[in-house]
Amino acid sequence: MIEPHAPAPPGAPPPWAGPARLPVRQGTGRFLVLACVFVCAACGLVYELELVALASYLIGDSVTQASVVLSVMVFAMGIGSLAAKRLRGLAAAAFGALEALLALVGGCSAMALYAVFAWTGDWGGPWASGPRWLLVAFSLAIGLLIGAEVPLLMELIQRIRRQDAGGAVADLFAADYVGALVGGLAFPFLLLPQLGQLTGALLTGAVNAVAGGTLVLGLFRRDLTRRARWLLLGANLAVLGVLATAAVLVDDFERAAREAVYGKDVRVAVQSGVQEVVLTGGTGGRPLDLFLDGRLRVSGRDEDRYHEALVHPAMNGPHARVLVLGGGDGLAAREVLRYPSVQRVDVVELDPTVVDLARSDPALSRLNGHVYGDARVHVIVADAFRGLRTGLPEPSYDVVVADLPDPGITASTKLYSQEFYGLVRRVLAPDGRLVVHAGPLAARPRVFWTVEATMRAAGLHTTPYRLAGRASDVPSGPDRTARASRSPDDWGFVLASPHTRPPLALGPRVPGARLTPGALREAGRAAAATRIGGLPASTLVHPRY
């Protein structure tokens, strides 16, 4: 693709290593190459972070996803760098083609991954499943292309003005690392909150294509044949056309994908500063469902059974002051307020958007009994760990209800640590009770019993119990399989107290409660039959989930 040169005499440097014929001065040419290095590094890091963020959102377990994406990508970068050695004679043309391909793959990666997630169902299951390998494939492809950039850019900058290898590497890496810094900061503070993952990735791809195409077609155009210039221009225009078309259609795509994930009755879809909050149903006789980051958090079909099982056993004893950790939907607080002797309920919730919806959405506020209109309920917007550590309005609480996301989600791991339960123990009254939702016992028995072992390590005396969950309640219909895949077979809970093992019994009988003493005793026996002993506690520095 470069113009032919006369054969070089023996021992002479290859003809493509000679000075480039530039339309600008050497100093300006070097600056433009380094500027392109800066832009490409920023785009490359955005692609990496976008894959990590999207995989963590769709699959969960952010530590595993980050490890897989970054390790595969760094490995691929090494392979790409080695492969690019063979392209040094075509450095300008190869770099232009590589950037166009990287812009297309990286820019469309988020949309492709989300499409597979939406239309193939949940990504649960082993890593051998197809959608998970698509994540690895994108990490591998993007890593190969990013790794091939550096040798080609090194060749181009040396052709402008040859210098010692150490000086050239220092200049190139300085621009590369500064660009990575800018990309790393732009992703969480600009692209993600302002544009979202899909549009942000598409825009990054467009910037990548423009930077690479402009450098080669503007600065190194004399290294290309006329045919190569037109091919490269056409390829870049085609990539930009694809990215622009995708950007125009991204809203329609998101709506269609959201319907595929949540069904056709999505009423509210909000991206808060913490998570995506989606409400479906709640009108026309359809049960309300609340999803947080794609995970079913509340199902109107059986949330009353879940919240009764969570709250009522802990109310067996003094319960004037109650602390709810999580539970911004107000449903745990609703069960607490069914006891007339409750004087104060403090709800510690990380996401104010959930609380706002629980107050203002007609279906959700009706489901929670309009608890946020009760003067006894007070909201504290904070992370549960930070809230316990920095201090709460009351010096101690009779009951603490931990209505938190499952411990299998990495972001929640610290809320199931020995340190966390130590903080809870400090705010419990001497005869107070703590109840914890510890995830589905049948599906993840080791996780459940690790939670119980961690609570005991924090000095709490525990009583575990287990109730049948949602999966058996999912009605027949076209979306039954998808809903059942999100619905646990059971709920696992642990009741605990600082000084004595709390009895598994109900508090004062409240009108309308369906949970019976007999069912609760059976729930205790069901949990005890699955006990796994000898598990170590989970700590902040050594999480076990």
TrEMBL record:
Q: State the Gene Ontology BP annotations.
A: spermidine biosynthetic process
Q: Which CDD domains match?
A: AdoMet_MTases
Give every PABS domain span: 247-498
Record's Gene Ontology CC terms? plasma membrane
List residues binding spermidine: 307, 329
Localization, UniProt:
Cell membrane
Is Iron set as a keyword in this record? no
Q: How does it sit in the membrane?
A: Multi-pass membrane protein
* Record bears the keyword Transport: no
Binding of S-methyl-5'-thioadenosine, residues = 275, 349, 383-384
Extract the InterPro entries matched here.
MFS_trans_sf, PABS, PABS_CS, SAM-dependent_MTases_sf, Spermi_synthase
Identify which residues the record assigns to the active site: 403 (proton acceptor)
Reactions the enzyme catalyzes: S-adenosyl 3-(methylsulfanyl)propylamine + putrescine = S-methyl-5'-thioadenosine + spermidine + H(+)
Q: Where do the record's region annotations for Disordered lie? A: 469-490
Q: Which UniProt keywords apply?
A: Cell membrane, Membrane, Polyamine biosynthesis, Spermidine biosynthesis, Transferase, Transmembrane, Transmembrane helix
Family matches, as PROSITE patterns: PABS_1 (PS01330), PABS_2 (PS51006)
Which family, according to UniProt?
Answer: Belongs to the spermidine/spermine synthase family.
Q: How does it assemble?
A: Homodimer or homotetramer.
User: What NCBIfam families would the database entry show?
Assistant: MFS_SpdSyn, PRK03612.1
| Full protein name | Polyamine aminopropyltransferase
**Source species:** Streptomyces griseorubiginosus
Q: What is the lineage of its organism?
A: Bacteria, Bacillati, Actinomycetota, Actinomycetes, Kitasatosporales
